[in-house]
Amino acid sequence: MTPTRPASRFHPLHRTVCTVLAVSALAAGLSACAPLIIGGAVVGGVMAVDRRTAGTQVEDEGIELRSANRIRETLGDRVHVNVTSYNRQVLLTGEARSAQDRQTVEQIVSGVENVRSVVNDLAVLPNTTLSQRSNDTFITGKVRASLVDAKDISANSFKVVTERNIVYLMGRVSQREANRATDVARGVTGVSKVVRVFEIVSEEELRRIAPQPAPVTTDNTKPAGG
User: Fold this and answer.
1) What is the average pLDDT value for the chain, to the nearest integer?
2) Which residues pair with 36 in a beta bridge?
3) CA gap 148, 155 in Å, rounded
4) Mean pLDDT, residues 30-57
5) Range of the domain at 81
6) What pTM does this model have?
7) Cβ-Cβ contacts under 8 Å for 99 (sequence gap 6 or more)
8) Residue 199 domain-assigned?
9) In Å, what is the CA distance from 23 to each residue of 33, 49, 154?
10) Confidence of residue 49 (pLDDT cuts 50, 70, 90)
């Protein structure tokens, strides 16, 4: 007689750790690439919803690529800049070796096609080490995992960027969602500060732009002889 194996147990802590590692791995692999999510397409087996139009997402992708190329061509490795565009609002994070370089980066990005506004949070500091950047990636993963665990907000509505333990949150969200996500991020170990770069919309507008679930249809046809 084959002995019965005990039912496997998956502790919630293990689930959280796995989620953090998975998200961190994605962030590390995609930090220099185009966004994983385009529209509401299924990517890697995951259905994601974005509050930007498909056209705006493509524009944001183009803004990031063109900005990064122009910064590299002009300043090379004198700066370490992460360019994040959401709804054509561009966030600049990282380090510049001088105030002049910091200003030059902003001018370059401001001149890129389709850019609506620029938030320049570059620090005048030496470039961060690979160890610091790896830690920032891990923090981003933990924040993303915490947003997923918060059932009263949609994690896919937020873009998370971490620089020197400072977490930046972006997205088109209501005031309630902005406050909730900020509280969640502040509660993550290792986060020194949370900077909000939100586009605040009303609850009414949120209901209008939020994707609606597909209607459920039922077949009321009775079987023959029923």
Assistant:
1) 82
2) none
3) 5
4) 55
5) 50-124
6) 0.73
7) 124
8) no
9) 15, 17, 16
10) confident
pLDDT digits (tens, 9 = 90+) for 5-38: 444 444 444 444 444 444 444 444 444 433 333 3
40-71 b/e (C-beta count within 10 Å ≥ 16 → b): eeeeeeeebebbbeeebbbbbeebbbbbbebb
Query: Is the separation of the CB atoms in 120 and 168 below 8 Å?
Result: no
Window from 29-33, 80-84, 135-139, 190-194 with minimum mean pLDDT = 29-33
Which position has the token pair 């502040």?
A: 186
> Contact 93/81 with Cβ under 8 angstroms?
yes
CATH number, domain at 100? 3.30.1340.30
Q: What residue type is assigned to position 116 of the chain?
A: R
- Inside any domain, residue 144: no
Number of domains, the chain: 1
Q: Is residue 219 part of a domain?
A: no
Distances (CA, A) of 82 to 19, 23, 98, 120, 122: 24, 19, 17, 11, 9
